[in-house]
Specification:
heterodimer, A: mainly alpha, 2 domains, 67% helix, 0% strand, B: mainly alpha, two-stranded antiparallel sheet, two-stranded antiparallel ribbon, 4 strands
Chain lengths: 120, 495
């Protein structure tokens, strides 16, 4: 088989499977569930304030801060997964680089904590 | 092909950077634990951190000087230490030490109270040091991002000011766009060649007879990203706005520190395609001519000091790019001569600007050119230093700026670009006009409407001002040191 296809075939399979799965879940939730639309269902939830408002009014940035911090500390899973899969293939250098990465992430976490970003 | 250094892992060459980074982390922890402590009543730490970071930078300069290893690789060829990176790192560290000295008074006068300011600056210096050493497209991309993110934060540091936040947002949006272009170029290069390592790419391109279309496109995108970072026309539009909007202290760091490191990186990328330069020379040549035109003509209309300095830096980048595009040993050394002397002159200009303090009712950010009308009456000596710096920037003979420009023009003529050289010389005459106009405002204009007052110039600030001022004269009389450094930088680049 062509090595190009050989390399990327699993990705194609994954992609098509996830596409199909999301299509199924999304489609069945439209066709099978009872639809009872209302204005309250369209309103904003969990975000603290009205999304359509005067742009000049002051608002609290806590929500955004939490979201940004979540992104930072969640993104590291992306690296950890790939690292754990390929751990047998890399030498001790790769292991210690990950330890260093986690350590630096910890430093950032302590900084964020001490500077009071988690105080609600 | 496996290059001999590909598994070389000489950690000793990045000991200065490891030292710098770990001290930054320790200082960060010191800052965030002490500044949030109730028992110590939430002290302001910026002055302390400024002094500690000066000490750290001096120590890392000592480490760089005493590094015995020349031409070695680390992290499987991602990072390379040669004499070019050695001297560029030294000049970055020294110029940033001078900037720290200059800015120590400013933080008190303008109440920059968040202790993170100098830590962010130090992280940018760390990034620039690594950028000088990077030997790999991916590494250099990440390091360039580290450096740019620090600068975005610095631009937006005065968060209560609408101008500063606007500048920060603009810088962030445009900078991330240019980084996207840069990384897209890298993906194209990787797609064609299957590697991002500089030496390997150079080897492959040297072997092949001609470049492919995709490959050329990739390098063009990479060069566009670099030209944006250097603020060369036609990618210059961000720079005056951001210089003007961001706080003065951040503008100092944008203006003085990063250029030399990015320039070395430009040469490293350019030397990959050095055998096929004919196509890429034109990019730099066009950009250089555009920069010189924009920097000379648009500056004539500027009324604000910071905008004027931004446009004048675009002008100087034009001369530098002329030297880059010629890509001979002579022109490359003249480029590094130029950037070193420009850094010294820039330090002198900014130290004068930092010693001025507008009166109480003036807007702190609006340094208009007319305001310099009283500089001679309030402090004669500083006024004379200011005039000398401007003459050096314009390239008037008894100062080092003259040699810098002369070298560039001479190497352009020697390479056969006589028409371009004549054009650039004529444009440089135009650019002399606005420096001399500034001198006219400072010396011969009688405007007593607005008075500048001088802050108390502390000792270190005065030392920086006078030493750089004296260097402008001394390096004209004996430019051997700076010439030698620039030749040493050139010799270790691939030709």
């Amino acid at each position: 088989m062509n090595p190009f296809i050989n390399n990327f075939l699993p990705i194609l399979v994954f992609f098509s499977f996830s596409f199909l799965l999301s299509l199924i879940i999304f489609g069945f939730s439209i066709f099978l569930a009872f639809q009872r639309p209302g204005t309250d269902k369209l309103s904003v939830y969990e975000c603290g304030f009205d999304a359509y408002n005067d742009a000049r009014s002051t608002f609290d940035i806590k929500f955004y801060l939490i979201a940004i911090l979540f992104v930072i500390f969640d993104l590291e899973t992306m690296f950890v997964f790939t690292w754990s899969v390929s751990l047998s293939g890399i030498n001790s250098n790769g292991f210690w680089i990950m330890v260093d990465f986690m350590f630096e992430l910890l430093l950032g976490y302590i900084y964020v904590w001490k500077s009071g970003a988690f105080d609600w | 092909m496996v290059l001999p250094y590909s598994m070389e892992n000489n950690l000793k060459i990045i000991i200065p950077e490891i030292f710098l980074f770990s001290s930054i982390v320790i200082i960060l922890f010191f800052g965030c634990f002490i500044s949030s402590s109730l028992i110590r009543r939430y002290p302001l730490l910026n002055k302390t951190i400024n002094k500690v970071l000066i000490l750290v930078l001096i120590f890392s300069a000592i480490l760089i000087v005493n590094n015995p290893i020349v031409n070695s690789y680390c992290f499987n060829g991602c990072v390379n230490e040669d004499s070019a990176s050695h001297f560029v790192k030294l000049s970055v560290v020294f110029s940033s030490i001078c900037c720290f000295f200059i800015s120590s008074n400013y933080i008190r006068n303008y109440r920059i109270n968040n202790f993170e300011f100098f830590i962010v600056v130090a992280l940018a210096i760390f990034g620039l040091n690594l950028l000088a050493m990077s030997h790999d497209f991916l590494t250099s991309y990440i390091i360039l991002e580290l450096q740019s993110f620090c600068f975005y934060i610095l631009a937006a540091f005065k968060r209560c000011s609408a101008y500063s936040t606007e500048a920060g947002l603009k810088y962030f949006l445009l900078g991330s766009f240019s980084s996207t272009v840069f990384v897209f170029g890298i993906t194209l290069i990787y797609g064609v060649f299957g590697t991002v390592d500089f030496s390997l790419l150079h080897f492959i391109i040297y072997e092949n007879s001609n470049l492919f279309f995709l490959d050329k496109l990739g390098f063009i995108f990479v060069f566009i990203g670099i030209l944006f970072k250097l603020s060369a026309a036609p990618f210059h539009v961000w720079s005056p706005d951001i210089y003007d909007g961001s706080p003065l202290i951040s503008t100092l760091f944008f203006a003085v520190i990063p250029k030399i490191s990015i320039l070395l990186f430009t040469f490293r990328v350019f030397s990959i395609v050095s055998d096929k330069t004919n196509f890429f020379v034109s990019i730099f040549l066009i950009s250089s001519i555009f920069s010189v035109i924009v920097g000379s003509l648009v500056t004539l209309k500027q009324k604000r000091l910071k905008k004027l300095l931004a446009y004048s830096s675009i002008n100087h980048v034009g001369y530098l790019l002329l030297g880059v595009s010629l890509f001979s040993i002579e022109s490359t050394s003249s480029v590094f001569f130029y950037i070193l002397s420009y850094t010294i002159t820039g330090l002198c200009v900014w130290s004068v600007v930092f010693s001025l303090q507008p009166g109480r009712f003036l807007n702190y950010r609006a340094f208009n050119l007319v305001d310099f009308g009283v500089i001679l009456k309030t402090n004669l000596l500083v006024g004379c230093i200011f005039g000398t710096c401007l003459f050096s920037l314009a390239g008037v003979p008894p100062l080092v700026g003259f040699y810098a420009k002369l070298n560039i023009f001479q190497s352009a003529i020697n390479a056969g670009f006589i028409l371009v050289a004549c054009f650039v010389v004529l444009m440089s005459v135009v650019s002399t006009f606005y420096y001399i106009r500034l001198i006219r405002y400072a010396f011969f204009e009688n405007s007593t409407k607005k008075w500048f007052f001088f802050t108390h110039i502390n000792q270190a600030h005065a030392v920086v001002m006078t030493v750089t001022f004296l260097l402008l004269w001394v390096l004209f009389l004996n430019p051997v040191i700076i010439d030698l450094i620039s030749y040493k930088i050139v010799l270790s680049l691939i030709f």
